[in-house]
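We were asked to recover a plausible sequence for a given structure. The inputs and outputs are reproduced exactly as logged, with field labels preserved.

PROBLEM: sequence recovery
POSITIONS: 323
GIVEN STRUCTURE:
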């Protein structure tokens, strides 16, 4: 595969994983009155771990090795699992219960910003003119997509303060997890290893919630086909394949570049709601989605080419001035 083709493949993967993540909203809306919040958050995580752990085991057996993880790196996966899957889902569910959907939609826009800060502090990634421009373009697009959220938001209402802070914690945790997983990718772990090991930790940490907060009743899931299929979709697509795609992209892209695709979520959520929940999509939403796609295209595919062009122009000016 040529370098240019790989860049377009990575861009497509960024779009695909964000589309998969966006399905979570509609699925949760469908089963929200059938299962409790803890079950919605963590049963799919258990199911995802159960689905992908045997795949990892078989993959490693073919390579003639066991579950490859050094004692030194166990601590890294403890951090990843607790600060990632567990904390994200726990604060997401609690926050969503205690604030407006419009507030949550606006707060979600902080994820790429948190990622840029975390990547700078943890990985030494740096912003450049193309990334700033891409952020501005993508943010313009997402604001066009989120007009209804902007109108319906209520951040001055003290009754939503706790929910807003919990949801902001979920976004910050998501940014930390995305950045930390880039660190694990750079340490040589595969996409499947990162997914399974962090999910095992997150699943184990959620057990006390089922024991003391919301006792799990398996029958409530098995006797409801809609809930069962929703759990399968969340486990396989949202918690599984989407994360594997994202980790795959992190092998070549900076986490700041890859996370800019999160600005596609409001557009994809509206698009899926159109098909699943019979909601309407407006012209500003469609235009906003196109503008956001342009921003992600620039930072994913054309960043190096644009920077090289500017560098060549600068060199020409310096050369001309020297004469």
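RECOVERED SEQUENCE:
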């Amino acid at each position: 595969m040529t370098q240019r083709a790989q860049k377009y493949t990575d861009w497509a993967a960024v779009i695909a994983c964000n589309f998969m993540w966006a399905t979570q909203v509609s699925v949760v809306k469908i089963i929200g009155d059938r299962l409790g919040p803890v079950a919605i958050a963590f049963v799919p995580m258990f199911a995802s771990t159960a689905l992908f752990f045997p795949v990892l085991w078989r993959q490693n057996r073919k390579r003639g090795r066991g579950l490859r993880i050094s004692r030194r790196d166990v601590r890294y996966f403890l951090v990843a699992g607790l600060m990632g899957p567990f904390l994200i889902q726990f604060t997401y569910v609690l926050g969503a219960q205690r604030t407006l959907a419009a507030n949550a939609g606006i707060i979600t826009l902080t994820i790429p910003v948190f990622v840029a800060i975390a990547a700078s502090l943890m990985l030494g990634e740096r912003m450049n003119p193309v990334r700033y421009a891409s952020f501005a373009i993508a943010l313009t697009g997402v604001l066009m997509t989120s007009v209804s959220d902007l109108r319906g938001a209520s951040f001055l209402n003290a009754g939503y303060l706790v929910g807003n802070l919990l949801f902001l914690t979920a976004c910050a945790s998501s940014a930390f997890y995305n950045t930390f997983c880039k660190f694990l990718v750079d340490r040589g772990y595969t996409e499947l290893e990162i997914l399974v090991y962090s999910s095992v930790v997150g699943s184990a940490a959620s057990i006390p919630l089922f024991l003391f907060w919301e006792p799990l009743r398996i029958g409530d899931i098995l006797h409801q086909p809609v809930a069962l299929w929703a759990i399968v979709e969340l486990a396989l697509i949202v918690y599984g394949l989407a994360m594997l795609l994202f980790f795959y992209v992190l092998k070549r892209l900076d986490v700041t570049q890859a996370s800019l695709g999160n600005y596609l979520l409001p557009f994809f959520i509206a698009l899926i709601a159109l098909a699943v929940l019979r909601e309407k999509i407006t012209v500003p939403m469609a235009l906003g989605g196109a503008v956001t796609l342009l921003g992600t295209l620039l930072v994913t595919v054309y960043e190096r080419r644009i920077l090289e062009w500017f560098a060549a122009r600068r060199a020409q000016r310096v050369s001309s001035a020297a004469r």
